[in-house]
Amino acid sequence: MSGDTSPFALDLAELHGSLGDPLMEVMNFLNEVTSRHPGAISFGPGRPHEGQFEVERIGAYLDAYTRYLTEEAGHTPDEVRTLLFQYGRTNGQIHELVARTLRNDEDIRADPESVVVTVGCQEGMFITLRALFAEPTDVLLVPSPCYIGITGAARLLDIETVPVPEGEDGVDPVALRETVAALRAAGKRPRALYAIPDFANPTGTRMSVPARRRLLEFADEADLLLLEDNPYSFFTRADARVPTLKALDTRRRVVYLGSFAKTCFPGARVGYVVADQEVRLPGGERTLLADQLSKVKSMVTVNTSALSQAAIGGMLLTHGCRLREVNKAAADHYGQNLSVLLDSFERLLPPSRREAAGISWNVPEGGFFLTLTLPVPADNELLETSARDHGVIWTPMTYFYPDGGGLHQMRLSLSYLTPGEVAEGAERLTELLQRSCL
After folding, report:
1. pTM given for the model
2. N or C: which end of the chain has fewer CB atoms below 10 A?
3. Domain coverage including residue 390
């Protein structure tokens, strides 16, 4: 018997390869920087502002949902107890309320049976990818830059991702067509394209309606599914409502990924997938993709918390299953923050000064994010300097580029801050730029 009493240890090289991927360290790194500089103003987190949260309302929402179960759904007290305390329906309990809300807010006509209620949108992404990507030759197309949640989920599932450049109107249509053709020529199958058409994370880009229609037409032509992620569409500075891809979808090419994190209650961790595509079974029968996602979900989380669903369901019922108007105050807050940031940059970095230095930024019409471009690398080293010496934190855009771009860009998230903090943060960023670029 060996005399070695040291604890058994695993080699990282023997674990799944994704665990050594720098992508998996992004959130930990940003949290660590924030913890070391607690006085810094952080443009890092894409969290909703907490000014609209009311703790005392949670009980009222649970009461509203309980009344719905008895008065509208016709359940007995014993059945209500089971619905709230027990493991529940894998696809979720509030699917009918979700479908009603989507019809009211987005004009999405979804059969409640096509809705899978998930543990946040992240689980929705995971189970959708697991169900759709069957062969090693199946490829997920993603915009570049791209939200790391989808690329991270694909990495965990060993699904190949191929980036398509994103412009001011979404993914570049010429590049998309060329990428699909090249992949097919190489013996691969482009299975789906992930997109955030409204105020994308990380860029803030919003697709025009003609671009959305062109994308749907191409998806049908190329036998491609579209994974539409829509957390930010309510949060527009202009009051112009733009139809989602799913609302425009007449061929069921769009799998719609939704969440109540930004619009209701992030701590509840409730999202959903609208998966109304038909699936042909070996015997000729047909079912919905939602039913297949349910099989995957049953092995991942079993079901979504009944209490979390009750809280969200009560919120939906309280507001008549209409969230757009309820979120107007939040939209106004984010719009004010965006205006404060843009106005501050215009004042602190007038055109002649910034153009000479090679500094620029985009001007989103809503959402949580803005992209700042510098003449120097916006890397981890500059971030450390920014946090330590200037008291301001942001996210390097390199984390969002699957193909290694974005070295000279930073993402600024303005959702979690007050207007005063945004203004002060802009001052501190300008001091950083004065030292590094001007």
Report:
1. 0.96
2. N
3. 18-47+327-436
